[in-house]
Amino acid sequence: MANEEKLVEYLKWTTAELHRTQQQLRESEAARHEPVAVVSMACRLPGKTRTPDDLWDLVSEGRDAVTGFPDDRAWELPDEPPYTALGGFLDDAAGFDAGFFDIGENEAVATEPLQRLMLHLAWETVERGRIAPHALRSTLTGVYVGATGHDYATRLDTAPDELLPYLGGGTSGSLVSGRIAYALGLEGPAISVDTACSSSLVAIHLACQALRRGECRLALAGGGTVMSTPHTFHAFAHQKSLSADGRCKPFAAAANGMGLGEGVGLVLLERHSDAQREGHPVLAVIRGSAVNQDGAGYGLAAPNGPSQQQVIRAALADARLAPDQVDAVEAHGTGTPIGDAIEVQALLATYGAGRPADRPLWLGSVKSNTGHTQGAAGTAAVIKMVQALRHDTLPPTLHVDRPTPLAAWKKGGVRLLTEAVAWPRREEPRRVGVSAFATSGTNAHLILEEPPLPEPAADPAPEPPVVAWALSARTPEALRTLAQSLVTHLTAADPEPSPAEVAYALATTRTPLAHRAVLIGAGRAELLAATRALATGDDHPAVVRGAPDDDGSPNPGKLLWHFDAAPPADATRTAELHAAFPHFAAAFDEAYDSLSAHLPVPLPAAPFDSPHPDRAEAVHFAALVALARLLREAGVHPHGLTGDGVGHIAAAYAAGILDLDDACRLAATHLTATDPRSTSPDTYEPVLKQLTFQSPALTLTSTAPADTPVASAAYWHHHLTSPAAGPAAAPETRTLLLAHAGPPELPAERALLTALAEIHTTGGTVDWTPLVGSTPAPRAVDLPTYPFQATRYWLQDHTARPAV
Asked: In the beta sheet, which residues pair with residue 289?
């Protein structure tokens, strides 16, 4: 090859390599800045705030959640405490469903409330994301939790012997994240963070970074603080940083210190592209975030204005946004006069400079409603602002008489949200910054953006004639409570979900637990009546119930499928199943067409109403094949299979001995012989030589001598030329007759669902998705989360120490 040709080839190779490298750099840069979706949220905050919707009600109605000290925590106060006994408290900090998480009583008592509440929230957050919690087991799902205020064990003068094995882990910050990962079986990073007041926002920042780097596919992130003693009040009071009336007055002239609170919150995060692909909800997206440190300033706990400016600019750079592209900031805003003034100056210098007069930066703080919830503060702020985006409103900040005179408000376009402000969609996405600045010196800032408008929904598929709602819980009481919650939710829902949409959500977003019920109905009225009956413990013909053994373990028994040889008198039931279940119809059509191809005279295209000498037997065989495939798709695994005549061939297909084409080829010889058992043995030799036999995946009960393997031509030669034999079921074995798959007195689709409900409610595995699946799939809808049955666990009064 000439030198010129070698040079040309080298240049082509170099150019191609350069293009590849540039593409890799572009992809790497895009991944480093990819927006992160907020898929779901959960919280417990003061003012009996138990859900994100409750939080929105609290802030949009301008309510103050500050109350007196709780009377259920055995707090011993000094005669003259150096603080006002007011704050923002959780209404049931001691409540925990220990049995749900398989935690014994002593371990539950010794485990701090923060760990316990976080377990509840983790399960709720996953369910709110329309993901079945068990589906995350062994996945790269991360847990990033900001955890502060581990004072639970300080209530003890001495530890009782029965609690000693559990107190170490039960009060460890590391186990706040680790226990969640253990309970859900998550295998991504599990990291606990304590940077004081910025802990949960730092945790969310770390989760976003991990998602972008591919360290996890999903991440639970957030944080919290539960005050088990009043020690925190005592400490801050001696620092003279507590408000005299227990309330935060962010950025107000009347600000006189911080009001303390507590709470817990979690969000479920996922890369935006992944959330869109998986069909998960996208409540908002995190465009960028940053974390930094105050360093050596005026004092360890003193705020540092330049550092606050730097972290804001770093978050804007990470989001690749300009300051005037952000509409509002949910501030740290604790109500300490100097701290608030420094924060306002930082906002004026970053967001406020040069803003148009008609587009000021709106400023608010949820702490005016709840108090400073410490480890939960950043997550509470995020949840508040996601809700503000969803409701097109910036809610008011309370307790502001007038803006603090310590800040130079006129130097930039920053305005306090002293009343609600409409926040409608516009051409450019709406965005809000969220800040958290800590006494540790660790600062965090992130930028939330409204999600893109969802694609227009496709026209819904026809509603199936009958659907099944599968409910389950860890206890009978919880199952009844869940049923009542579902009734309440559905009667108030707007828009009203269809029965199929509810069935699909129950099938795909909830974990099957030990106590189960299946509600089978032909419409909303029947299903709601059945759900009400389940809630009250009354009988109803549409309710199929089941219970585990006394030890709580499922008891499905052994299940045998029997494939009958004789076709039914007519094909009505098969036609009903074909019309009701798309998965059945697809499997039936494939088997019917394959069988027709092996017959001398093809079967009619319309299987249910056209005359043909072999039509009844062909429809029956195809129905057996379709039922077997539908049951397998539904996750039903029998312990054994039996069958007569052509049903035995369908059973061999279900067992994996024959593929569908070979099963249809063999079945076509019953259909073409007038009396197969009197036909010459040589008749079947050509067909048997064409078959390929596989080792059975399921046990098929043999009808031949014991030494004849079922996956052999010899076995099938014996079957085709010998009298039919229907083996008896073994003891403690239930037989499902695939000829009618359920009680024959019921319509076919209801009978099938009833048969599966009986399997499901006695501990068998049924995946209901194929039974409600359609094209397009039913619309995703939200359902009530699990109703935890909380029991009080608290280190008792006699173990409490005085607060001083």
From this structure: 446
Task: Write out the two tokens for 560.
Answer: 């045998």
- Distance between CA 153 and CA 158 in Å, rounded? 10
CA distance 784 to 791: 20
Lookup: tokens for 556: 């499905």
Residue-wise pLDDT for 191-212, tens only, equals 999 999 999 999 999 999 999 9
Query: What pTM did the predictor assign?
Result: 0.91
Taking phi over 0 as left and psi of -120 to 50 as alpha, with beta for the rest, 399 belongs to left
Spatial distance between the Cα atoms of 558 and 381, rounded to a whole number of angstroms: 53
Which residues 6+ apart lie within 8 Å of 767 measured at CB?
A: 507, 633, 634, 635
Query: Quick check: 738 and 648 in contact, CB under 8 A?
Result: no
DSSP state of 500: H
DSSP-assigned beta bridge partners for residue 562? 642, 737
Q: What are phi and psi of 781, to 5 degrees?
A: -130, 155
**List of E strands, 572-722:** 640-643
Dist CA 707 CA 694 (whole Å): 17
Q: 302 and 293 in contact (C-beta within 8 Å)?
A: no
- Catalytic sites, residue numbers: 197, 332, 372
Record the tokens describing residue 74, joined without a space.
Answer: 């055995």
pLDDT band at 501 (very low <50, low <70, confident <90, very high): very high
> Is residue 539 packed enough to be buried (19+ CB in 10 Å), middle (13-18) or exposed (0-12)?
exposed
**Residues, the chain, total?**
804
Please state the rounded mean pLDDT for residues 512-519. Answer: 96
Residue 512 has, within 13 A of its CA and on its CB side, a CA count of: 25
Omega within 30 of 0 (cis) for the link into 776: yes
Return the closest-CA partner of residue 147 out of 378, 447, 307. Answer: 378
Q: Give, rounded to a whole angstrom, the gap between the first and last alpha carbons of the chain.
A: 91
CA distances from 325 to 310, 315, 320, 428 (A): 18, 13, 10, 8
Are the C-beta atoms of residues 220 and 162 closer than 8 Å to each other? no
The tokens describing 549, both together, are 């053994």
CA distances from 37 to 22, 145, 218, 450 (A): 27, 18, 10, 10
Query: What whole-number distance in Å separates Cα of residue 209 and Cα of residue 201?
Result: 13
Coil vs helix vs strand at 501: helix
Cβ contacts of 621 within 8 Å, gap of 6 or more: 591, 595, 646, 647, 649, 650, 664, 667, 671
Helix-strand-coil percent breakdown of the chain, rounded to 5? Answer: 40, 15, 40
- pLDDT, residue 720, reads 84
23 CB-near residues (< 8 Å, 6+ apart): none
Q: What is the largest CA-CA distance in the chain?
A: 107
